[in-house]
Amino acid sequence: MDGQPSYSRSVILSGPDADLLFDEARRLAASLSCMSEDIAARPCGLCPRCRQIREDEYPYLYTLTPTGKANIITVEQTRDLQSFLMGKAEEGQYKVAVLADAHRMNEESANKLLKTLEEPPDGTMMLLLTSKPDDLLPTIRSRCRMLTFNKAVPLPARIDLELAEDILRELKDEGYMAVFSRAKQLTTGKQRSLQSLLSALEHIIREKMLLAVRTATDLSKTALYIEGLQRIWRAGYLLERNVNACLVMENLFLKLMDLPAS
Asked: How many domains is the chain partitioned into structurally?
């Protein structure tokens, strides 16, 4: 599809945290369906499709879970999934099927799924979520890209969180003076790891963004938080490539000045 990012058509999301896997599946679905004209900014989290996916109301996202006393994914469920994928979607939209606990497929349903994995319909994506990837048939594993997710990333160190809070407060209170003084201070002698500071800034801004989403506050705030996160990730990328650290941090702080006060 024109303008869509490139993705493997079938992906195994593996890890012990089912909620984390579902969140990542929604993120991938939103990346495909997002209406933002800036491909690099997808998923934007703000457009109607992103909101529908977040609220489990998107018509082209199909979730399949084990059923019955045996707690398995049956061949009948696999047939329903194939029917869903074969149906027509509106122009420019992807159909995404999510299989929770994919290792709970019995042999008949797994073999039924193989044909779809081998010849997926155009404009579709299958996401197989599992805590036991080795229990999937080798023929299924060989036809999918594998992404592994460990438990949630641990909190940044308290000293980095406190430093990040201080910097955000100074940027809001002192403006440009704080931008240049903090950037110089942080990159002279590098008393703290800049990557650790970026992780702490990301954590704080992500929490503010999620609070804004949950409380349904002004969506323009959410857009600013998203742009702030993107600038943090960009700063980390540049630092890894030995770009002038002081300039990187100055550019980042100039952007973080625009964040809402709360």
From this structure: 2
CA 216 to chain centre: 20
Asked, for residue 46, whether it belongs to a domain, the answer is yes
Q: State which of 148-152, 179-183, 220-224, 239-243 shows the largest mean pLDDT.
A: 179-183
pLDDT of residue 215: 59
21 and 103 share a domain? Answer: yes
With tokens 């996160």, the residue in question is 229
Residue 4 has pLDDT above 70, yes or no: no
Does residue 8 register a pLDDT over 70? no
Q: Which of 148, 170, 194 is the last residue before a domain boundary?
A: 148
Look at residue 94 and tell me if it is in a domain: yes
Q: What is the pLDDT at residue 1?
A: 41
80-108 in b/e burial notation, b at 16+ Cβ within 10 A? Answer: ebbebbeeebeeebbbbbbbbbbbbbeee
Same domain, yes or no, for 17 and 137?
Answer: yes
Pairing type for strands 95-99 and 61-64 reads parallel
CB 97 within 8 A of CB 62: yes
**Containing structural domain, residue 213:** 158-256
Mention every residue, 6+ apart, whose C-beta is less than 8 A from residue 23.
none
Higher pLDDT, 12 or 6: 12
